[in-house]
Amino acid sequence: MSEVNPLPAPIASSGLVLSRARRDPTYQVSATDETGARADTTIAGEHPLTIYVDRREIVTLMTLGQAPEALAIGYLRNQRLVGSLADIAAVQVDWEVNAVAVSTHAGIADLDRRMAHRTVTTGCGQGTVFGDLMEEIDSVHLRNDVQLRQTGLVALLGLIRDHDSVYKSAGAVHGCALFDNLGDQCRMVSFVEDVGRHNAVDAIAGQMWLNDWDGSDKIFYTTGRLTSEMVIKAAQMRIPFLISRSGLTQMGHQMAERVGMTLIGRAINRHFLLFTGAHRFVPAVNGATER
Amino acid sequence: MSEVNPLPAPIASSGLVLSRARRDPTYQVSATDETGARADTTIAGEHPLTIYVDRREIVTLMTLGQAPEALAIGYLRNQRLVGSLADIAAVQVDWEVNAVAVSTHAGIADLDRRMAHRTVTTGCGQGTVFGDLMEEIDSVHLRNDVQLRQTGLVALLGLIRDHDSVYKSAGAVHGCALFDNLGDQCRMVSFVEDVGRHNAVDAIAGQMWLNDWDGSDKIFYTTGRLTSEMVIKAAQMRIPFLISRSGLTQMGHQMAERVGMTLIGRAINRHFLLFTGAHRFVPAVNGATER
Known about the structure:
Number of helices of chain A: 8
Radius of gyration of chain A: 19 Å
Structural class of chain A: alpha/beta
CATH class of the largest domain in chain A: Alpha Beta
Strand content of chain A: 25-35%
CATH architecture of the largest domain in chain A: 3-Layer(aba) Sandwich
Largest sheet of chain A: 6 strands, mixed
CATH topology of the largest domain in chain A: Cytidine Deaminase, domain 2
Oligomer: homodimer
Strand order of the largest sheet of chain A: 11-10-12-13-14-15
Largest interface: A-B, 77 and 77 residues
Helix content of chain A: 25-40%
Distance between the termini of chain A: 31 Å
């Protein structure tokens, strides 16, 4: 289970109403192993969650349900359906009906056109609002006055290794985490797991709005592959450092080069591969001997 | 690289026109490892592919591009936009413009309504046409007169282990495979890798149409997690056996129980966990000693 509470306290000053409706992350099922022995097993939850905005059905996501309010907000943010947290009056999850009701102060202008456009650009798990994202990527400028030290990266990977997670007990989920960069150390400010890596990154995008976090000096970690979409979403959050345990794709690489992001893959314990944005990376003086 | 050609020869008798426009699966990029040494690395391709049906834009998928014609056909099949292969006159991929043009004989009736419905049910990588799929799942009847022997399963896992793959050289992709069940042996009839597991399963669905394969006695293998959507798609192909190297989710488990599918996870070499549909599974007589 995540130790980092994925939701901030309701923001009273803004009047935003938030439920805090987390699901149990894991369940027990019975299985039989190759010897014929019974092997009770922990598996990850998966729940449909239909997002309604001002009573209009938008989408059904399948989710682990660890940060459903932030997921709904981040989904609407990343789909460019809501432009600012201030537009949202309430986000209320009701697992009795697997729904999250988002109320806006003034409605969403032009929703039909936006939804229609989404239809032709939303990929089946790959190209979410790809057309929109590509149009915006060239307007993104990531900060170049921030650095990631190798010592800080290794510290970050140690925090990930030691963090309690649904993945460790049940597998079948991806995790994303957001870190403050403290030089030789890092501080985990958020950790979200979900059955799809898209949900996990969307939930963190929602948390960033809810907490008014500035991404421009943060570090984003994901267990998932570094595809074009992951790079583009990090860029849109203005995050200059993107780190993954997994590999990357050609377009992920191209997008990171295009936007000047520091992209690090295959990052486990002390090992990693630095692919792009080396100008922000500070190697350890004795890096070669620390292996 | 896949050794199994993912596309059949053009079906002259039906007059279906098919391109055969595969992309290179991997590319080389330069990286720096933790010692500061240069580490040239193989990474997986990722290409946008926009599907047009009768010149109307449907969706942009991000794909490895190993079976783009079958992917387009399988996507339209699994989204329930095309009801039969006989409706399709031509599928022509042009990587110069990252597009696949699908021509139908008589158009798609009611495309606007179908697309609109898809908008509200297509998840961001999780819940593709979830509403539609759930409606259909209860009408599926999987064959109960077929069996999977433990010896055959272990033979299948050996074929997977020995199969040359993009994953082995570049990571960052998921693989799906379809097998004939020969009792103590299995025969791989298809193997498709893609940057998203949804694409890989859709491409196999397309190949099944193209080759007129009956799924009712076949075995489906995936490297990806067994979520509700994966179980539902296998059920719609009438495939009674679904096997994964990875774990499963609660809804994947529930859906498999609901439709009576034989679901096997954590399947690597001789090891596996049998979760549901045990009535079709024949343990090895000396299963306990073979460990």
